Amino acid sequence: MRHLVLLGTGGTIATRTAPQGRRVDVGAGELLAAAARVWEVPEAAVEVRDVRRITSFSAGVPDVLALARAVRAAAAGADGVVVTHGTDTLEESAFLLALAHGGPVPVVVTGAQRPFDDPAPDGPRNLAAALRWAAAPESDGTGVTVVFADAVLPAVGVRKTHTLELAAFAAPGRGPIGHVDEAGVRRHHTAAPPAPLLDAAADDLPRVAVVPQYLGADASDIEHAVRRGARGVVVAGLGAGNTPPPVTAACLDLLAAGVPVMLTSRVGAGPVVGLYAGGGADLAAAGAILAGDLSPWQGRLLLAAALAAGAAEPSSTAATVAERCRTWLRAAGAVDGTHHLLAGGSAPSQTKGT
Ligand SMILES: NC(=O)C[C@H](N)C(=O)O
Fold first, then answer.
1. Average pLDDT, stretch 186-209?
2. Residue 289 pLDDT > 90, yes or no?
3. Which residues form the active site (predicted)?
4. What's the 11 CA to ligand 1 centre distance in angstroms?
């Protein structure tokens, strides 16, 4: 029999409806009892711990680092760990857990779109599916995954894609890597997750700003972010990874001054590639980190983790921080978009990470 640990953190899955709005007041034990009414998991014994009782929009990086430590402690003595979490920032927490988690024990994050006291709640089934996935040998070695609406998605690349629908998450280009439903537990082919980058011992991460780009954006937001103490900047770029010329110029100045700049896209799916003169090609040539298909929010955590890892090494520079990100991205199977199309239209072949 597998031994699972269920860690409750709050979120809609653990809310009841009140006149002032939904409030978290359901513990992990009650969630487990509701899940067991959907599907029993007879092949597993589940130990329950309440880590937090908060909505995920109220959480901060220190909360998630503490959760990462709770996950590590639980994983040391279990065959699987399941975390219930609010959906608003679930894609970031799951990613941060993935940056800190190594080894074969599966860590499974789930939540709900509807409250616990909804007449047709989705939480009990999501949790039942997450427990079944964690209890099945198919989940071994899959790292951190998100189970939602019967789909198993990798934490790396997962995004919330709908505000209200029950199938609220997707990992465009990367998942689902499995399903849990009336037909049972199925794992599709998956690459091994990358080795951990973060030891989660610190209470917080270095400050990294996400700066969204839009029609006619200028450099003021980036300059403001750095003046306010950002140690790195993630640009949520246009299209395949472009910035309006004044923003490109500001990013080149930052790179020249040794401040890491990471390029992502605001589009919502697909990798960034340095294609256009005056935009992404200039940034790639100047040493910006092209974050593959990571969302700006996941990219921000990767850059912050790389900066934190560098804090321990006096010789760490913007270039070594960038290289740390690129090594992790390669291992996570991200496209290296600095290899932009060559004249003549052929792209060099990509070596996919394992
Ligand atoms: N569906 C949810 O869980 C949303 C909620 N606001 C939260 O993130 O805690």
1. 91
2. yes
3. 12, 87
4. 5
Are 5 and 19 a contacting pair, CB within 8 Å? no
Compute the distance from residue 56 Cα to the ligand 1 centre, in Å.
6
> 327 catalytic, yes or no?
no
- One domain for residues 161 and 282: no
Query: What ipTM describes this predicted complex?
Result: 0.98
C-alpha to C-alpha distance for 172 and 158, rounded to whole angstroms: 7
Q: Is 88 annotated as a binding residue?
A: yes
Longest dimension (CA), the chain: 64
CA–CA dist 108, 154 (Å, integer): 9
Q: What pLDDT was estimated at residue 352?
A: 41
Q: Is residue 243 among the annotated active site residues?
A: no
**Inside any domain, residue 235:** yes
Residue 200 in domain: no
Average pLDDT over residues 84-93: 98
> Which atom of ligand 1 approaches the CA of 114 most closely?
1
**Above pLDDT 90, what percent of the chain?**
87
Per-residue confidence band for 175, with pLDDT thresholds at 50, 70 and 90: confident
Determine if residue 56 is labeled as part of a ligand binding site: yes
Report the candidate in 17, 34, 26 with the shortest Cα–Cα distance to residue 118: 17
299: helix, strand or coil? helix
Mean pLDDT of 178-187: 97
Does the C-beta of 12 come closer than 6 Å to ligand 1?
yes
User: Which residue has the least CA distance to atom 7 on ligand 1?
Assistant: 86
> Residue 215 sits in which domain range?
208-331
